Automatic annotation (TrEMBL):
Signal peptide: none annotated. This is Glyoxalase family protein. Residues 9-134, 157-280 form the VOC domain. The keyword Transit peptide does not apply. InterPro entries: Extradiol_RC_dioxygenase (IPR052537), Glyas_Bleomycin-R_OHBP_Dase (IPR029068), Glyas_Fos-R_dOase_dom (IPR004360), VOC_core (IPR037523). Residues 310-329 are annotated as: Disordered.
Length: 329
């Protein structure tokens, strides 16, 4: 078998939230991401699916949520994505600490990790998140969304995910198969339970890193946990070759599933984390103009005929908007 095209990195991360309005208020109004798609869980159409990203919905920038209000609080443990980290421009963490103080966001002490400064915090569902200061190059593919946060501080897509695993070795071999390269190890810091953190790097500029930590700490899925992490396989051909490579590792990926804005393949890796392979197209602007992303409830294909029924079953939500009071001359 020929080697697959290496993944450029993370495509999106999907998490479980509780109250949908609280989730929307935090990720848009507090963190300053753009709501690029307001839709439904295609496997559970009575639940919203929110997509928060950069201004253009660039691959590698979208944090998505299923607000399942009836689920209990989750607990991060082995077999899960334990941390999701975002890139922010160098020198911006003072701004973010001030903003977190203003908005009552719980955050921890900064830590140094692989030569970078990391600010850990949690969202209203106690989801563990991090901001990592990096140098943003002039040709960076992400486009800052500036309705709430100035461009010089704005989140610029994913930095990394951290996987907690009881036996990291099979997963580390899988990451190598997917085209990530091991770049180093160091002692874990903060509240992570493992002794050693191993970093793998993908080929692209955004969502480049996957960190692996050993732990036997038990967890459960629910509010404040990651449902799955998706990796970019930009074209159908890339995805097909990666799917074959995953099968060669003894895993059982699904057939391709059309998710309307990308096409997906899913599988549980050896440690239990749900992985997705996602194409980069058609993209979030395939069914809405770029200027209007997130402005309406989008129902993919087969659900449009059920719009009245679906809308009636969903709670009302209001998209946060920056105050733009104008003074009359």
């Amino acid at each position: 078998m020929t080697d697959p095209t290496p993944t450029p990195g993370i495509h999106h991360v999907t998490c479980i939230a509780g109250d949908p309005q609280r989730n929307m208020d935090f990720w848009v109004g507090t963190l300053g991401l753009r709501l690029v798609k307001r839709s439904i869980n295609q496997d559970d159409p009575g639940t919203y699916h929110f997509f928060f990203a950069d201004a253009a919905g660039t691959p590698g920038t979208s944090m998505t949520f299923f607000p399942w209000t009836d689920l209990p609080q989750g607990k991060v443990g082995s077999g899960q994505v334990s941390r999701t980290a975002f890139r922010v421009p160098e020198g911006s963490l003072d701004y973010w600490e001030g903003r977190f103080d203003e908005y009552g966001v719980s955050y921890g002490d900064r830590v140094e990790r692989f030569g970078e400064t990391v600010l850990p915090f949690t969202d209203p569902d106690n989801l563990p998140v991090e901001l990592v200061e990096v140098e943003i190059p002039d040709d960076d593919p992400t486009v800052p969304w500036t309705e709430f946060v100035p461009a010089e501080y704005a989140i610029r897509g994913f930095h990394s995910v951290t996987l907690w695993l009881a036996d990291p070795e099979p997963t580390m071999e899988l990451l190598r198969t997917m085209g990530l390269e091991e770049t180093g190890t160091e002692q874990a810091q903060g509240d992570t339970p493992g002794d050693e953190r191993t970093r793998f790097a993908a080929t692209g500029p955004v969502g480049q890193y996957v960190d692996v930590l050993p732990t036997i700490e038990g967890g459960r899925q629910g509010h404040g946990t990651v449902h799955h992490v998706a990796f970019q396989t930009p074209t159908d051909e890339d995805q097909s070759s990666m799917r074959s490579a995953v099968r060669s590792r003894g895993l059982n990926p699904t057939q391709q599933i059309d998710r309307h804005w990308f096409r997906s393949v899913y599988f549980r890796e050896h440690g239990g984390v749900l992985f997705e392979l996602a194409t980069n197209g058609p993209g979030y602007d395939s069914d809405e103009p770029l200027d209007d992303l997130g402005g309406r409830l989008v129902l993919p294909g087969r659900f449009e005929d059920r719009r009245e029924e679906i809308e009636a079953g969903l709670p009302d939500v209001t998209i946060p908007r920056a105050e733009t009071a104008e003074v009359d001359d």
